[in-house]
Amino acid sequence: MGRYIDHILQPGEKVLYSTNAHWVFYLPAIAAWIAALVLLILSRSTTTEGLVLLCLSASAVVALAALYWTAKAWFHRWTTETDVTNLRVVHKTGFIKRRTFEMALDKVESVDVNQSILGRILNYGDVTILGVGEGKETISTIASPLDFRNHITAR
C-alpha cells in the first residue's frame, strides 16, 4: 500500500513538503511502559509474597495498556499524511473510515500555527488553514508546523 498522495497527484503536480503526526502521540504509551517497568522492578525488590503478586499483576495490566496505546499511536501515525504540493494542501487521516481535506493553494487566505510551550520545545503544533470561500480546517499535532506553514505561504 502506497502513500495516499501518490495516488491522487494530478499531471504536473509535485509534492513540495510532507509531514506527519508528531511522535508525541506515543507519550501515554511511553509513560505506561515506564510504569510497567517500575512495577516489575518493585516486584523483584520486595520479599512479601502477596506484594510480589500484586506488583506483577499490576505490571501486566499496565503493560497491556501500554501495548494498546503503542499500537494506537503507531496506527494513527501510519494512517495520517499531510502534504503540500505545488497546487494544493492535502491532509488524510484514517484507514477504513477515511477523512481527507484538500485546499487549492490559491484559495488559502491565512495559515495560523498554535504551539504550546512543550510544542515549541518538541517542534509540534496545530495548524489552522483558512480558505477564501472554502472554510476553516485545523490539522492537529503535526510535526514541524512552522515549516509546513512556510511551504504553504511561500509562492
Description:
- It is a single chain.
- By secondary structure, the chain is an alpha+beta fold.
- It has two domains: 26-75; 82-153, PH-domain like (Roll).
- Helix content is 45%, strand content 30%.
- The protein has a four-stranded antiparallel β-sheet with strand order 1-2-3-4. A three-stranded antiparallel β-sheet has the order 5-6-7.
- Helix 2 runs antiparallel to helix 3.
- The longest helix has 30 residues, at 49-78.
- The radius of gyration is 21 Å and the shape is elongated.
- The mean pLDDT is 92.
**What's the total count of β strands?**
7
CATH architecture heading of the largest domain? Roll
Helix coverage percent of residues?
Answer: 40-55%
Strand order of the largest sheet: 1-2-3-4
User: What fold name stands as the CATH topology of the largest domain?
Assistant: PH-domain like
Tell me the name of the CATH class of the largest domain. Answer: Mainly Beta
Characterize the largest beta sheet: strand count, sense, and whether it forms a barrel. 4 strands, antiparallel
Please state the CA-atom Rg, rounded to the nearest Å: 21 Å
What's the pLDDT, averaged over the residues? 92
Number of separate structural domains = 2
The topology string of helices and strands comes to HEHHEEEEHEEH
Beta-strand portion reads 25-35%
Give a quick rundown of the structure.
With 155 residues, the protein is of the alpha+beta class. It has helices at residues 4-8, 27-45, 49-78, 117-122, 145-153, and strands at residues 15-19, 81-85, 88-93, 99-104, 108-114, 124-131, 135-143.
